[in-house]
Specification:
Layout (H helix, E strand, L loop, with lengths): L8 H6 L3 H20 L4 H28 L5 H32 L2 H7 L1 H11 L7 H29 L3 H31 L4 H41 L7 H34 L1
Helix pairs in contact: 2-3, 2-4, 3-4, 3-8, 3-9, 4-8, 4-9, 6-8, 7-8, 7-9, 7-10, 8-9, 9-10
Length: about 280
């Protein structure tokens, strides 16, 4: 496969920032192929195509991480090794978010309406859940957001276990939703600025872009980090089962490794929910 040969897991872990470029490339190609071949269903097709482009790399990386779990490394050392893969996955995700955001901003309105239709519906459903202003309402919102994020995390684990690198579909979908939210925020602000000041004040437009990105990455990055961490844990178990490692004594170590990753991801979700409920509203 051409896409599979572009970068290897070893290159990815050694130079993780490159993955932002590949995430941007995968999402951009998926967008234009979706519009070209399946325009009416492009909001979902582009997610599938971007996922398909990422699967070979994600799966091969998970296989390597599973092998590390059999080497008898200490838990702290093993988690440090896994963090290199998670770091690279995060840059892949960021690249996808940037691509979805950019094309939401620059494409014509009628194209954007079709291309991001499903994502927009999802955002409207989320926005229907208003965050309260009293302490009790905030804690209620914190609980609801945390439990919803845990549900998504469990899907990541299940998809990774059943499909090896299946969690990448959920994460690519989330990238498209976040990109849509950021793009819509920036597009609305651009429209307001253009009406008030015209197109001469470049600093104002750049500030809007920064504001739009910051609004969602404050809590979005920890959430996605948790999903990738849990997905890696599920994927490691999946690969171990496929390779029949469950019949060996090392499988217990692999299970402990995966359990550590899931527990860490749950802790990160607590932080993400706190940021979303108590920090983001103070800034925006």
């Amino acid at each position: 496969m051409v896409v599979e040969s572009l970068i290897t897991p070893w290159k990815m872990e050694n130079k993780p920032t490159r993955m932002a470029f590949f995430g941007f490339l995968y999402a951009s190609v998926a967008i234009f192929l979706g519009l070209w071949v399946f325009k009416a269903y492009s909001s979902l097709i582009m997610v599938f195509l971007a996922t398909m482009a990422s699967i070979p790399l994600i799966y091969n990386t998970i296989k390597i991480e599973e092998e590390k779990g059999k080497e008898g490394l200490g838990e702290r050392h093993l988690l440090k090794e896994h963090s290199r893969a998670v770091n690279a996955f995060m840059f892949l995700f960021v690249g996808m978010v940037l691509a979805f955001t950019l094309w939401y901003i620059v494409l014509p309105s009628h194209t954007v309406t079709t291309l991001f239709n499903s994502q927009t519906e999802t955002i409207n459903d989320i926005n229907g859940r208003a965050i309260g202003f009293t302490i009790n309402e905030k804690f209620s919102s914190f609980s609801n957001i945390f439990l919803n994020n845990v549900r998504v995390l469990m899907f990541c684990v299940i998809f990774s276990f059943l499909y090896g690198s299946g969690a990448i579909f959920i994460l690519t979908w989330n990238a498209s939703v976040i990109g849509t939210a950021i793009g819509d925020f920036i597009r609305q602000k651009f429209s307001a600025l253009a009406g008030a000041f015209g197109f001469s004040n470049l600093a104002e437009y750049l500030a809007v872009v920064g504001l739009g990105l910051t609004k969602y990455i404050i809590h979005g990055i920890p959430e996605i980090l948790a999903y990738f961490t849990a997905g890696l844990g599920g994927g490691i178990i999946s690969v171990a089962v496929i390779k029949h490692d469950m019949k060996t004594k090392k499988f217990e170590h692999i299970l402990l490794d995966a359990a550590d990753l899931v527990l860490i991801s749950l802790f990160i979700l607590v932080i993400a929910a706190f940021l979303e409920v108590f920090v983001t509203p103070l800034i925006f």
